[in-house]
Amino acid sequence: MQDNEFEYVGFWPRVGAAIIDTIIILVITVPLLVAIYGEGYYFSDDTPLIAGQADFLLSWVFPAVATILFWLHKQATPGKMAISARVVDAQTGNSLTVGQSIGRYFGYIIATLPLFLGIIWVAFDPRKQGWHDKLAGTVVIRSKNRGPIPVKFDS
Questions:
Q1: Which of 61, 78, 98, 152 has the most CB atoms around its CB within 10 Å?
Q2: How far is the CA of 126 from the CAs of 42, 54, 91, 123, 139, in angstroms?
Q3: Is the sign of the CA dihedral 146, 127, 10, 28 positive or negative?
Q4: Under 8 Å CB-to-CB from 72, ≥6 apart: which residues?
Q5: Around Cβ 46, how many Cβ atoms within 10 Å?
Q6: Of 89, 90, 91, 92, nearest to 71 (Cα)?
Q7: Minimal CA–CA distance to 30: which of 49, 47, 54, 12?
Q8: Quick one: angle between helices 98-112 and 62-74, nearest 10?
């Protein structure tokens, strides 16, 4: 892997990738949660943070496990794949370790707590790292030339 072949992926493409991932997770979990708990699960004012074991598994465990497995086996979630991005080790460019993947996932909690400042940090960081990336030692990259052929203009 040569350094000049890749670029860091910035804030807005990563927001788009996160939206895609969120939609996929919701398409899977919402029907299951409604089937188990009924429509009141989403529309009741007195629904607890975790309504039961199935809620905990579908809303908390499943997204974490799925995300971590995608990082480990594909270097990207479906949203990142859609924008041709990969999550790699910041020092070597290699795949993430299990520890990095778990740390990165739970690093999102730290990054979002102070008004999403750790996520917004991506927009201003020279390597486009959010706090979760810095904590886990990761970067999000993609090929500079993502099209089927390079763009050329006749002078």
A1: 78
A2: 40, 41, 15, 8, 11
A3: positive
A4: 95, 96, 98, 101
A5: 5
A6: 89
A7: 54
A8: 130
Distance CA 19, CA 123 (A): 17
Which pair of tokens denotes residue 126?
A: 């020279």
pLDDT digits (tens, 9 = 90+) for 99-154: 999 999 999 999 999 999 999 999 999 999 999 999 999 999 999 877 677 667 77
Question: Which residue, 136, 146, 141, is CA-closest to 17?
Answer: 141
Q: Six-digit token pair at 142?
A: 């993609």
Averaged pLDDT, 72-101 = 97
Residue type, 97: T
The structure tokens 């927001």 sit at: 15
User: What are the structure tokens assigned to 78, written together?
Assistant: 């479906």
Unique residue bearing structure tokens 């899977």: 28
Three-state SS sequence of the chain: CCHHHEEECCHHHHHHHHHHHHHHHHHHHHHHHHHHHCCHHHHCCCCCCCCCHHHHHHHHHHHHHHHHHHHHHHCCCHHHHHCCEEEEECCCCCCCCHHHHHHHHHHHHHHHCCCCHHHHHHHCCCCCCCHHHHHHCEEEEEECCCCCCCCCCCC
Distance of CA 135 to the CA centre of its chain: 15
